[in-house]
Amino acid sequence: MILQGNQRQSSRIEFGAHQVVLVASNEARETMPDELKQGLVMTIYEAKGLEFDDVLIYNFFKDSQAEKEWRVVASYMQDQSIANASGSTGLVEITEESVTVQRSARPLEFDPEKHKVLNSEFKYLYTAITRARVNVWFFDEDKVYRAPMFEYFQRLGLVNVVAIGDRDAGSGDLVNMFAAKSTPEEWRKGGIRFYKHRLWVPAIQCFTFAGDKLMLQKSQAQQQAAEATKFRSTNRQQMRDEFLRAGESFLKCDMYDEAEICP
Fold first, then answer.
1. How far apart are alpha carbons 60 and 142 in whole angstroms?
2. What is the tens place of the pLDDT at every residue in 9-68?
3. What is the rounded distance in angstroms from the CA atom of residue 101 to the CA atom of residue 80?
4. If pLDDT is split at 50, 70 and 90, which confidence band does 3 have?
5. Where are the beta strands (DSSP E) in 11-92?
6. CB atoms within 10 A of CB 85
7. What is the pTM of this model?
8. Which of 117, 160, 125 is nearest to 1 (CA)?
9. Where would one find coiled-coil regions in this protein (predicted)?
């Protein structure tokens, strides 16, 4: 499903423990709108190897390292004569008009040297899509960068398009579309899974929703220690200060072994 539009709903959307919002980077996670923070938010890299029932891929193209390079997809559609998919059969119907059809994105001929960034971006896109067992949702605010892939998905008949805010078109209530409440125990189980995978940020999110204060404190202490290591090669003094704070947090949780190894 593609959610097409630039207006976010003001209502908060309560996601469940088996759903996830995937973003391109930690920076993108920090700038998420409030209405999407009532659930699990992970980077695509963090989600590698994990599966969820439903996945919302948020602003993938807006935050992509590729920009005009996405227009290569429009060139591919032109070369392959990909027309609009037939809604009744699921097959792609190719007509003479489809070869010269006007597209929303101007085609860009692929150059292996100039467009290397697409190698990693397509891998990230594949990883994001394949995290879902049931539903994949796309929402992207950048009309230009999203256009080639959105059109490609539509032409192959792979998606349903929902125009946000267009009630007459049958978009329905987005809050009800996404909402899937989970019990505190379900959130706790999710937190334990992430804790075992040493994914401290999503573990913190899950234990927060679960109301498990002890595991929340343990996850926060682990995250503090992980953040401290980032300064190892740039600021040794700050690294020591961060490890000191992490050690204090470990002691508050009776995690003496972890506190002892903090430099």
1. 9
2. 445 667 889 999 999 999 999 888 887 778 899 999 999 999 999 999 999 999 999 988
3. 13
4. low
5. 19-23, 41-43, 52-58
6. 18
7. 0.79
8. 160
9. none
Q: In this structure, which amino acid lies at residue 219? A: S
Question: CA–CA separation, 69 vs 229, rounded Å?
Answer: 35
Distance of alpha carbon 193 from alpha carbon 200, whole angstroms: 10
**Contact (Cβ atoms closer than 8 angstroms) between residue 232 and residue 239:** yes
Torsion angle of C-alpha atoms 181, 61, 125, 54, degrees rounded to 10? 10
Q: Which residues contact 210 (CB under 8 A, 6 or more apart)?
A: 184, 185, 187, 188, 191
Q: Which of 69, 23, 15 is nearest to 44 (CA)?
A: 23
Report the 10 Å Cβ neighbour count for 107.
16
C-beta of residue 146 within 8 angstroms of C-beta of residue 68:
no
8-state DSSP, 105: S
Contact of 86 with 166, CB cutoff 8 Å = no
The dihedral of CA 201, 203, 208, 214: what is its sign? Answer: negative
Cα–Cα distance for residue pair 52/40, rounded to 1 Å: 11
For residue 118, the SS3 value is helix
Rounded CA-CA distance 219/245 in Å is 14
Q: Looking at per-residue confidence, does 26 or 85 come out higher?
A: 26
C-alpha Rg value of the chain to the nearest Å = 22
CA–CA separation, 189 and 183 (whole Å)? 10
Within 13 Å of residue 183, how many CA atoms lie on the same side as its CB? 3
Compute CA 110 distance to the chain's CA centroid, rounded to the nearest angstrom. 26
Rounded to a whole number of angstroms, the distance between the first and last alpha carbons of the chain is 48
Q: Residue 192 has which token pair?
A: 């334990």
Could you tell me the two tokens for 133? 């067992």
